[in-house]
Write a structure and sequence with these properties.
Shape: globular
CATH class of the largest domain: Alpha Beta
CATH superfamily of the largest domain: Type I PLP-dependent aspartate aminotransferase-like (Major domain)
CATH topology of the largest domain: Aspartate Aminotransferase, domain 2
Strand order of the largest sheet: 4-10-9-8-7-5-6
Largest sheet: 7 strands, mixed
Order of helices and strands: HHEEEHHHEHEHEHEHEHEEHHHEEHEEEH
Bound molecules: pyridoxal-5'-phosphate
Number of helices: 15
CATH architecture of the largest domain: 3-Layer(aba) Sandwich
């Protein structure tokens, strides 16, 4: 459908009237209305008036192979014609689900050879926790139900997902969170470590905190540690060297499962199919993924786990893993994921990210000469800019100034999408980004930051 066929005013009006958006900010949507995106091609999306935007967000950290992939649409259509759906409950199955589970087992590190399918990152994390509880119970350790996560984590927006997260906004007091078996450690953010502490000392302090929290709960009650290898929505926080390995070792020593939430970091974003082992040298017991598994073309989540866990839960004796969704192993979603993974492998998108991601990092680092850019951080195609009022004290600008939204609005006016969160702009573009597109993105960011810094001076 051509962009000029859309009636923007009518779409915007009905959007306001009827569509409650995820994480809707009521005031901004009421004043500005929604930007209606109607089409995508490569690394660009187009709005209902036909304006093009270079998508620095990758949809929402997910359109890894880029927009407009006809072969994915064809795979989707073909599977929908052949078999749009059949239940995978108890003992029925379908070829795309079987093939995708086998493919993921071949890609995942170590003895991770089993896959439970869901519909999103949130319910893949939910499923991981249910799996931990079931596994610990079946091995005769029903007390091991406690989960340790971190501040500034994001694990989803279901009741359990958001309770596992600690990345909440000021309206959160009106919600309720599960806290009877969930614990949060400090965020491992090297930029905001205590003054005078080296990164190595900071890492030691974080590991000591882990030890203290486990001791307080009792290791015999801790079922799992849950972490994004790089914390995404919480601020693209790359932990200090040795942190993930240190916790992995402690988990092994204390009989605690290590869950890696790779919803963002898998399927190429850091230049690997899975990042825990290849980027951070850590072998998880459970990997949670979603988003890039289908490049966002269709919803799908997956919880991958080891032979050791499977052997326990599948021990003969009539037990049933009483967990699952109508759409677990959905044939169309699995067919899309298979085609998406085929493209990532065929085009060596991981290789492209390893090479071009380095250039992206270098170019974004050039922005640190700007007075309010406190830090540019992240890795490859998972990056973030943190703005501060003062680079020495790292003090933040007042919330009311809304710096990241102002900058993202400036970028949007110039045809580039970047994501605003608090005092951060997050960048997670499609993984096919070219050198020219990186140059455009960084140039527009510089112009936009300068424009907003100009406004700041005049206030
Ligand atoms: N885990 C991580 C690390 C995420 O970044 C997200 C979403 O951004 C989720 C889980 C939740 O995924 P979904 O929004 O598909 O439920």
């Amino acid at each position: 459908m051509k962009a000029d066929k859309f009636d923007t005013q009518s779409l915007k009006a009905r959007d306001k009237e009827h569509f409650l958006h995820p994480w809707q900010e009521f005031d901004t949507l009421a004043s500005d209305g929604a930007l209606v995106i109607v089409r995508g091609e490569g690394a660009h999306v187009y709005d209902s008036d036909g304006k093009a935007y270079l998508d620095g967000i990758g949809g929402m950290w997910c359109v890894n192979v880029g927009y407009g992939r006809a072969e994915i649409a064809d795979a989707m259509a073909q599977q929908a014609y052949q078999l749009p759906y059949y239940s995978a409950f108890t003992d029925t199955s379908n070829p795309p689900a079987i093939e995708l589970a086998s493919k993921l087992a071949s890609l995942a590190p170590g003895s991770i050879n089993h896959v439970f399918f869901s519909c999103s990152g949130s319910d893949a994390n939910d499923s991981a926790v249910r799996l931990v509880h079931y596994y610990q119970g079946r091995r005769g350790k029903p007390e091991k139900k406690h989960i340790i996560a971190r501040d500034c984590a994001y694990h989803g927006s279901t009741y359990l997902g958001i309770s596992l997260s600690k990345n909440r906004d000021e309206t959160d007091e009106h919600f309720h969170f599960m806290d009877d078996f969930i614990h949060h450690l400090s965020v491992p953010d090297p930029y905001r470590r205590p003054d005078g502490q080296s990164e190595a000392e900071f890492c030691d302090a974080l590991l000591a905190e882990f030890d203290a929290v486990v001791a307080q709960i009792g290791a015999d009650k801790v079922g799992a540690f849950l972490a994004e290898p790089i914390q995404g929505s919480g601020g693209v926080i790359v932990p200090p060297a040795g942190y993930l390995q240190g916790i992995r070792q402690r988990c092994t020593d204390l009989d605690i499962l290590f869950i890696a939430d790779e919803v963002v970091t898998a399927f190429g974003r850091l230049g690997h199919m899975f990042s825990s082992l290849d980027e951070f040298g850590v072998q998880p017991d459970i990997i949670v993924c979603a988003k890039g598994i289908t490049s966002g073309y269709i919803p799908l989540g997956a919880t991958l786990f080891t032979d050791e866990i499977f052997d326990v839960i599948s021990e003969p004796g009539g037990a049933c893993f009483g967990h699952g969704f109508t759409y677990s192993g959905h044939p169309v979603a699995c067919a899309v994921a298979l085609k998406n993974i085929e493209i990532i492998e065929r085009e060596d998108i991981c290789g492209h990210v390893r090479e071009m991601g380095e250039y992206f990092e270098q170019q974004l680092q050039t922005l640190t000469d700007l007075p309010h850019v406190g830090e540019v951080r992240g890795r490859r195609f998972m990056m973030c800019i943190e703005y501060v009022a003062d680079k020495v004290t790292k003090e933040l600008l007042p919330d009311e100034f809304n710096i990241s939204k102002r900058i993202s609005d400036e970028c949007e006016a110039r045809g580039v999408m970047v994501r605003p969160i608090g005092h951060l702009n997050i960048l997670s573009p499609p993984l096919i980004l070219t050198k020219d597109e990186i140059d455009t993105l960084v140039k527009v960011l510089r112009e936009s930051v300068l424009a907003v810094e100009g406004e700041l001076k005049s206030t």
